[in-house]
Specification:
The complex is a heterodimer of chains A (about 375) and B (about 140). With about 375 residues, chain A is of the alpha/beta class. Chain A contains 14 helices and 11 strands. Chain B has a single domain, classed as OB fold (Dihydrolipoamide Acetyltransferase, E2P) (Beta Barrel). Classes of the chains: A alpha/beta (about 375), B mainly beta (about 140). The interface of A and B includes residues 125, 127, 149, 197 and 203 of A.
Chain lengths: ~375, ~140
C-alpha cells in the first residue's frame, strides 16, 4: 500500500424516470455537488473515470467522452469502465487504483445510466444479451429468470419463504421513502408486495428493482490531499473483487454467489476485520432473493439463514446489521453504471453522520457489495472513517 | 442447397463449426459435448476451445437423462421471446455430471418437483431452428 485513499466529495442525482435530463445532464447533477463538497477542487482533478454499462440504453456510444466534456473536465485523462450491473463499483475500484498506485493524486469517479427511454421488454432484451448469447440467451433467459432459478433452489433447500422475500421489499421501500434521491419513495405493505404480479415465478414485480435513470459521483484523493480538501474524509480501506462463470449451468452452487464470497473474504482480510465489525452495509438487491443470498455471502448470517435474518428485523436500523438503509436497488433504483458509485456516496454519508432520518447511529465501518450480472463480476468495498 | 439450422428459439451469433456439428448430432437425437485432449475437461454444451487454453478437442456423447435442479416460469419475457411466453426454464444435472439449461415441457406447475427425473429431447422449433429441451421421464 502506497497511500490511504479517502473519499472527499460526494454527489448524487435524483434516480427515477428522468425524461427531463440526458445522461450528461444527470452526470452534472451528481458531479457539481461532489466537486463543491471537495472544496471546489475541479482544477486539482488529475484523472476522470466514468462508469456506464450500456451504449444501447443511452443511444450514445462512448459516453465517457460526452460526460467528461459536459462536466468541465475536457483536457484531463479520462476513460470508461464497464462491469454490467457492477460498473459503478468497477469505476470506484479503478479510481482507487489510480490514486493508490501514485499515478494520480485526486480522481473524479462518475457513474451514470439512462435506461427508461427504452420500454420494459426492450430493456429485458438488452440486458439478456449480457448473458451467454451462445447457449442460454437462445432460451429467453433474462436477469429476473436467472435470479428466480436461484430463488427456487434457495426456497427448496433452506425453506426460505415467499413472505421473507417480500419482507426485503417492504424494508427497502421503507428506507427508500426516506431517501430524496430514490426512484420509488413510497412504502409498501407486506400484502401488496406478496400479491403483486408474477414476473418470473417465484419472483413477482415487487421482488424486482425498477428500471431507472440516474448518476452519482465521488472525488477521491491520497491522504495528504484528502486532509486538505475535506475535514472528514471517508477512507477506502479495502476494495476487493472476484469473477464467476458465464453460464448458469456452470455455477457450482445455485444458492450462493461464489464471487461474492471470495471478494468478501479478501476484503475482510485486507481490512483485518470480521463481518461482525460492519456497522452499515449496502448489498446488491436487484431482486429480493439477491439480498437474502448476499446476507449469507457477506457472512452476516450462516448459509440458509438469510430469510430468518430479515424476518427477525436484524437488517433494519437498530438490528444486528442494517442493510440497504438508502432503499437499496429495490426502491432507490438501479441505473446500472450509477449504482456502485451511489453505494460509495451513501456509505460516505452514513460514516460522516449526514444521512438524516435513515442514519445508522455511530456508523464507523461500512461495506458495499455490488454484483455484475448474476455473479460474473463482484466487488466488495470496506470504508472507515 | 441445405439450409443451415440455427440453435435456439432466438439467436444473435453466427452458427460456427462447433455449433453446426452439435446441431447435426442433435437432429439425430444425440446430445454431444467436447472434451479437451490436453486437460480432459468436459464441456457440455460444447466449446471450440478449453478454458485451459487448448484448442485440441474431441467429441463425446452425453447421457440424455438427469434430474431437475431448479426452474422458473417466465411470464415477462424479453422482446425477442414474446411469442413463446410463458415458458419454463429449467436447470438439470445429467447423469454424467454436466448441467444443462433448457425449457421443460409436458409438465404442469403442480407436477414440477426438484429432483424429478428428466429426459433431454431434441426440439424442432421451425424448419431452420432446433434446440434441446427437457420432459419428465
Amino acid at each position: 500500500m502506497n497511500t490511504r485513499v479517502g473519499i472527499v466529495g460526494i454527489g448524487h442525482a435524483r434516480f427515477g424516470k428522468r425524461t427531463d435530463a440526458t445522461i450528461r445532464e444527470l452526470a452534472h447533477e451528481a458531479v457539481a455537488p461532489a466537486l463543491e463538497d471537495a472544496g471546489n477542487c475541479a482544477d486539482e482533478i488529475d484523472a476522470v473515470v466514468v462508469g456506464v454499462a450500456s451504449d444501447e440504453f443511452a443511444a450514445q456510444a462512448s459516453s465517457a467522452a460526452v460526460i467528461n466534456d459536459y462536466v468541465g473536465m475536457a483536457g484531463k485523462p479520462v476513460f470508461r469502465v464497464e462491469a454490467a450491473c457492477a460498473t459503478g463499483s468497477a469505476a470506484v475500484r479503478t479510481g482507487w487504483a489510480l490514486v493508490e498506485s501514485g499515478l494520480a493524486q485526486v480522481v473524479l469517479v462518475i457513474g451514470a445510466e439512462t435506461m427508461t427511454p427504452v420500454g420494459s421488454a426492450r430493456a429485458q432484451e438488452l440486458m439478456a444479451r449480457a448473458g451467454d448469447t451462445r447457449w442460454e440467451y437462445p432460451f429467453g433467459v433474462t436477469f429476473p429468470s436467472s435470479y428466480a432459478l436461484m430463488a427456487t433452489a434457495h426456497m427448496h433447500e433452506y425453506g426460505t419463504t415467499r413472505e421473507q422475500l417480500s419482507m426485503v421489499s417492504v424494508k427497502n421501500h421503507k428506507y427508500g421513502a426516506l431517501n430524496p434521491h430514490a426512484h420509488l419513495q413510497k412504502e409498501v405493505t407486506l400484502e401488496e408486495s406478496m400479491k403483486s404480479p408474477i414476473i418470473c415465478h417465484p419472483l413477482n414485480l415487487y421482488d424486482c428493482c425498477p428500471i431507472s435513470d440516474g448518476a452519482a459521483a465521488i472525488v477521491m484523493a491520497n491522504e495528504e490531499k484528502a486532509r486538505k480538501l475535506n475535514d472528514t474524509p471517508v477512507w477506502l480501506t479495502a476494495l476487493d473483487a472476484a469473477s464467476g462463470e458465464m453460464m448458469m449451468s456452470e455455477r457450482p452452487d445455485l444458492t450462493s454467489i461464489k464471487a461474492s464470497r471470495t471478494a468478501a473474504e479478501q476484503a475482510y482480510k485486507t481490512a483485518n476485520i470480521t463481518p461482525n465489525d460492519i456497522d452499515v452495509a449496502l448489498v446488491h438487491d436487484c431482486f429480493t432473493i439477491a439480498e437474502i443470498i448476499a446476507y449469507e455471502d457477506m457472512g452476516f448470517c450462516k448459509k440458509g439463514e438469510g430469510g430468518k435474518l430479515v424476518q427477525e428485523g436484524q437488517t433494519q436500523i437498530g438490528g444486528k446489521i442494517p442493510v440497504n438503509i438508502d432503499g437499496g436497488l429495490k426502491a432507490k433504483g438501479h441505473p446500472l453504471g450509477a449504482t456502485g458509485v451511489s453505494m460509495a456516496v451513501e456509505i460516505a454519508r452514513q460514516l460522516r453522520g449526514e444521512a438524516g432520518p435513515r442514519q445508522v447511529n455511530n456508523a464507523e465501518i461500512g461495506l458495499s457489495h455490488n454484483v455484475g450480472e448474476t455473479g460474473q463480476y463482484c466487488f466488495v468495498h470496506i470504508y472507515t472513517r | 442447397m441445405t439450409v443451415k439450422v440455427k440453435f435456439g428459439y432466438v439467436s444473435v451469433l453466427p452458427e460456427t463449426e462447433v455449433v453446426t456439428k452439435f446441431v447435426e448430432e442433435l437432429k439425430n437425437n444425440r446430445l454431444t459435448g467436447t472434451r479437451c485432449k490436453k486437460c480432459g475437461k468436459k464441456h457440455l454444451p460444447p466449446r471450440a476451445h478449453c478454458t485451459c487454453g487448448s484448442g485440441e478437442i474431441e467429441w463425446f456423447e452425453a447421457p440424455k437423462q438427469g434430474k431437475l435442479l431448479t426452474y422458473t416460469i417466465v411470464v415477462s419475457p424479453p422482446e425477442s421471446m414474446t411469442k413463446q411466453a410463458p415458458y419454463i426454464i429449467a436447470l438439470a444435472e445429467l447423469d454424467e455430471g454436466s448441467r444443462l439449461l433448457a425449457h421443460i415441457t409436458d409438465v404442469t406447475q403442480k407436477n414440477l418437483k426438484l429432483g424429478m427425473r428428466l429426459q433431454v429431447v431434441p426440439r424442432q422449433i421451425d424448419a431452420d431452428r432446433i434446440a434441446y429441451g427437457f420432459k419428465p421421464l
